[in-house]
Each structure stands twice: as C-alpha cells, then as structure tokens.
Amino acid sequence: MPKARQPRVLDLFSGCGGMSWGLHKAGFEIIGGIDTWAQALRTFEFNHPNAKIIERDISGLKTSEVMQLLNLDVEDLEVLVGGPPCQGFSKNQTASNRFIEDPRNQLYKDFMRFVKDLKPKVVIMENVAEIYNAFDGYVRKEVIETFNKLGYSVNVKVLTAADYGVPQKRRRCIFLAVRGNLVPEFPTPTHSVSEDQDALFPVNTYVSAWEAIKGLPKPSDEPDALVKYTDKPSSTFEEWVRNPTKTVANHYIHPLQPTQTKRYLALKPGQDIRHLPKNLRPKSGYSGAYGRLDFTSVAPTITRWVFHPGSGRYGHPKEPRIITMREAARLQSFTDDFFFTGSKNEIAGQIGNSVPPLLMFSLAPTIKRLLNNLNS
C-alpha cells in the first residue's frame, strides 16, 4: 500500500521559517517559502532543501505564478501559513504613528488574496497581539468577515507561547481557519505558572530560560565552530530541542566592550540597568537594558535586537556576557538542528522575527484533525 502523503505547507512572509519548522517537526511537508528578505530565505532553503524559495514582494506576486511553480491546483493545498509584517500594529510604535492606512498594515490583504485564490484546506495567519484590538478591532473583524465570505470557519485568539512550553513571554494573535462549517478549537495549554497534575488535562510549570539553555555546551569563540554536547538532556524541553547529530552550531560568544563586561559583572541574575552603580550606568536606556536572565523565570520577548546588551534582558545568568545566538534560538524554541545563515546581526533578526516553532508544533495535532475531518 503506498505511503500516505504528508500535509503540504506553503509559508507566506516566511522569514527564516519558524512556523514551517514547527510543522516540519510534526511531519508536515514544507513545499515553499515566500519573502523579500534574501538572507532569511537562505536560512529557510538550507533547512528545507526540497522547498521552493520565492524571493518576491507578495503584493506584486500573482497566485497563478506560485501555483504553477509549486504544481498546485485550486483547493489542492492542505495548509497555508504566514505572518504579514506587523510594524504598523505593534505597541513598539507610538500611538501617533499607528494608522489604518499605513502600508505596513495592508499586507494582510495580500495574504487573504492568496487564501481566496488558492482555497487551502486550513489557514493559519499570525500577527502581533495588538492586532486583536487595533483600531477598535477593525482588522480582526475584517479578516474574520473575509474568511467567512470565502467559505471558512475561523477562530481567533491571542496565545501566550509560554503556555505551550516555549521558554519566553511572547504573545501572538492567531487566526485559525478551515474550509466548511466546523469552527476550529485551539489546543488546551500544556504549561502554566504553577503545576497542576490533578487537572483533567495536567499542566506543567513554565519552562524557564535557564532550563532551556543550561544543557548547551560551552560556547566557542569561532562563529563557524560546531560544539559537541557534554551532558545528557535533563528535561522534556531539552529532549525536544537536542540535535540528533550531537553537535551545536551558531553557538559562539560575541565579544563585548570592556565597559559592557563591567556592567554585567556588576549585576546579579534578574537585575538590569536600574541596578547599576552610577559610574557604570549609561545616560539613558530601556528599563530592561543590560538585564540578566534569572534562574526561575521565562525569558522576555526575544526581539531582533537580541545581539545588543542595551536592548533588553539578554544577559547570561551565570556569565558576564550576552547570550549566544543558539541560546537565543532555544529561547525561541528552535531545535538545535536548525541552522542559521548570515552575520550575527542577521541571525538575531531571523530569530527575533520568528514565530516560536514549538507553538506551531503544538497546533499541529489540531490541524491534522481538521484535515482528517475534511477528508472524511
């Protein structure tokens, strides 16, 4: 009997492929990634060598071109995923800089154009949490109405990544849609602030930042070095993240300026710029600048500035240094066999702009059930 085909995934606004990587780990077939960021696409291509890479601005890309390249017919694709750029909705923008006509707020319409033309079976669109209520919920309501007009049932929810085992305080708005009338349900969280093994669906405590990175070997001083594990995995998260080849890439120390090292030496785990002595304190900076991770909490949201000590709580809890890119990748829940290409700053951008793969991995059983219901 021939082996059943795995559900195929097309990733729009793919970046380096965080969404795709989580679904790949769950057994889905990644057939394509579309983005304008060349370096991120090189990373996507390295990790998905069988996928088609399309370096194009989606607003000028016809769906017919994509369908021809990927050999797809209408209603043929199982899963369409993507995260349209979200700068215009983000709380990092001042209120005066947020307006509905911002071109950065319009790319979700191109995503919906692909939904209309491709008619995939299941669709996942993600964005910043703020899109849920942005402009009095206008965008959220428009997306839902568009899905409904196209024949989809849709559920939308702001998910906290830490609730699904990601060692990070990251909230994302997820639109989950399926063709037909069956309204999809989001999976029950598997983790919480406190453990509850007596519940109907037992939950574990959040995975701390330290639990996520402590099993990594000593980092190298060479960017291209491969480092071997020295210990066995000590947690469920480590079992998920370990590379079967027992080597780790992108795990190297970024040299700091002497003053930056002194600042880290002056801080205890969990402290930040506010705890620095006056002679070491910068004249200005974010409240979390030079912050060091502690041993019990999840990490703050990992951003594209994770390479810079003055941009957030990205200091190692034990050593006076910034975390390595591999440590940052673990906090984003990328497994160690995912390889990042590019410079340190480019890799930081790829990691910070990604959807946590483990969050998508947690959605995978729900997607498969929806597909099975459609097929039956």
Calculate the mean pLDDT score and round it: 91
Count of DSSP helices? 11
Count of extended strands: 11
Question: Compute the gyration radius: what is it?
Answer: 21 Å
Beta-strand percent range:
5-15%
| CATH fold category name of the domain at 8-192 and 355-375 | Rossmann fold
Gap between N and C termini, in Å? 19 Å
CATH architecture of the domain at 8-192 and 355-375: 3-Layer(aba) Sandwich
The helix fraction, in percent, is: 25-40%
CATH H-tier superfamily of the domain at 8-192 and 355-375: Vaccinia Virus protein VP39
Structural class label: alpha/beta
| CATH class value of the domain at 8-192 and 355-375 | Alpha Beta
Poorly predicted segments: 92-100
Q: Return the string of H and E elements.
A: EHEHEHEHEHEEEEHEHEHHHH
What topology emerges from the helices and strands here?
Elements: E1 8-12, H1 18-25, E2 29-35, H2 38-47, E3 52-55, H3 63-70, E4 79-82, H4 107-118, E5 122-128, H5 134-149, E6 152-160, E7 171-179, E8 191-192, E9 204-205, H6 209-213, E10 227-228, H7 236-241, E11 247-248, H8 258-265, H9 325-331, H10 344-352, H11 357-375
Parallel strand pairs: 1-2, 1-4, 2-3, 4-5, 8-9
Antiparallel strand pairs: 5-7, 6-7, 10-11
Structure description:
The strands form three sheets. A seven-stranded mixed beta sheet has the order 3-2-1-4-5-7-6, sandwiched between helices. Strands 8-9 form a two-stranded parallel ribbon. The protein has a domain at 8-192 and 355-375: Rossmann fold, CATH 3.40.50.150. α1 (18-25) packs across α11. Mean pLDDT is 91; it is low at 92-100. Helices cover 29% and strands 14% of the residues. It starts with 7 loop residues before the first strand and ends with a helix. It contains eleven helices and eleven strands. The chain is globular, with a radius of gyration of 21 Å. It has helices at 18-25, 38-47, 63-70, 107-118, 134-149, 209-213, 236-241, 258-265, 325-331, 344-352, 357-375; strands at residues 8-12, 29-35, 52-55, 79-82, 122-128, 152-160, 171-179, 191-192, 204-205, 227-228, 247-248.
